[in-house]
């Protein structure tokens, strides 16, 4: 059977990891496919200066992606540049040239993946995007095929390795947020501009994709309630531990009788749950089905080789489709068509909450806060105050019984006007059953 040739656009960490895997496992891949998968062309700004692994054979190099996409010997284009502008041009051009596509681009696929898939189907080519979420976990394949016979009712995950690394470092070493972030940047876990990671936008794109796969709905990322981790401090972990919890950036999608509720936010997670044990830069996804119940998926969320494995696996799947043919392609979104949908507001979600305060200590503080909570029909669960010598910046915590996000927001807004507070209260939902 004839070989299948690949053109890779982007030779950053993921691109070089992908090329390395293809070079080192070429014979093994050929045994699995029954034909060879060759790197025929590569493109990057300085493609001529890149040192490619030995054993690839002749490779066409260019700094113009148009030359790669139009190359007559390239069967599959792998878009590994990221972003939403040039990447979209590359993908549209590949479809116009009837070249199948593999992408690791979570942002672009979250924004307009369904439209791109429709264009791909119209052109008679395939599209695969396993590497766009949780690079080292085949979660797309799980939702698209592995448990597709179930009806998903909830999906919760830790989808950003940078944020998880920062949180677990604060937890284990007690460093403040800024110091841990700087260390994460030094080690290469965080970008020079870490906004997308620590403010939750990267995780939001990933959740939009997984929600489409799990629930068959086209989700606009900006419709997802998103809160980052900048305000999490060592004292929050001290109190969380006293309560039997830890803190993670949780991406949640829950199907309720009223509709789908989506959020990305730091949350208290019970230490008895499996998500609480996810450390460092690892990712994890917990899925509950109406029939199969709970399943859990864990692995590296990023990195040249874990993500490269996902890219190579997609290349192999698409190559099989090219050589063997498939009368009915399986949509990368697991559904023939995605429904047009807007999530219901997260303010309708009910949960226990953790409220952390920093105050200038004086009599009557608890009474004032309790009065506001009572006005909003929120019941107290517990009041915790660890020993502290600094009375002008005293932290303490109130936990409350399950209540709506709307009631908590209204209470926090009113509390924020009190003159004894050093900063607005920090409100985090408490997840006890995942």
What can you tell me about this protein's structure?
There is one protein chain. The chain is α/β, with parallel strands linked by helices. α1 (13-24) crosses α12 (304-324), α4 (86-96) runs parallel beside α5 and α13 packs antiparallel against α14 (405-415). The chain is elongated. 36% of the residues lie in helices and 26% in strands. The chain folds into three domains: 4-135 and 304-331, 3-Layer(aba) Sandwich (Rossmann fold); 139-300, Dihydrodipicolinate Reductase, domain 2; 349-431, Alpha-Beta Plaits. The strands form three sheets. Strands 7, 9, 10, 11, 12, 13, 15, 16, 17 and 18 form a ten-stranded mixed beta sheet that branches. Strands 3-2-1-4-5-6 form a six-stranded parallel beta sheet, sandwiched between helices.
What number is the mean pLDDT? 91
Question: pLDDT below 50 for ≥5 consecutive residues: which ranges?
Answer: none
What's the CATH architecture name of the largest domain? 2-Layer Sandwich
How many H/I helical runs?
14
At the first level of CATH, the class of the largest domain is Alpha Beta
Alpha-carbon distance between the two ends: 48 Å
* Proportion of beta-strand residues: 25-35%
Total domain count: 3
Considering DSSP H and I runs of 4 or more, what fraction of the residues is helical? 25-40%
SS class: alpha/beta
Total strand count, please? 18
Alpha-carbon Rg, integer: 24 Å
**CATH superfamily of the largest domain, called what?**
Dihydrodipicolinate Reductase, domain 2
Task: Draw up the topology in text.
Layout: E1 4-9, H1 13-24, H2 26-33, E2 37-43, E3 60-62, H3 65-69, E4 76-79, H4 86-96, E5 100-103, H5 106-123, E6 127-128, H6 139-146, E7 152-158, H7 161-173, H8 177-187, H9 195-198, H10 201-215, E8 217-218, E9 225-226, H11 234-242, E10 245-256, E11 259-270, E12 282-289, E13 293-300, H12 304-324, E14 339-340, E15 350-359, H13 365-375, E16 380-384, E17 394-404, H14 405-415, E18 426-431
Parallel strand pairs: 1-2, 1-4, 2-3, 4-5, 5-6, 8-14, 9-11, 11-18
Antiparallel strand pairs: 7-10, 7-12, 10-11, 12-13, 15-17, 15-18, 16-17
Helix pairs in contact: 1-12, 4-5, 5-10, 7-8, 13-14
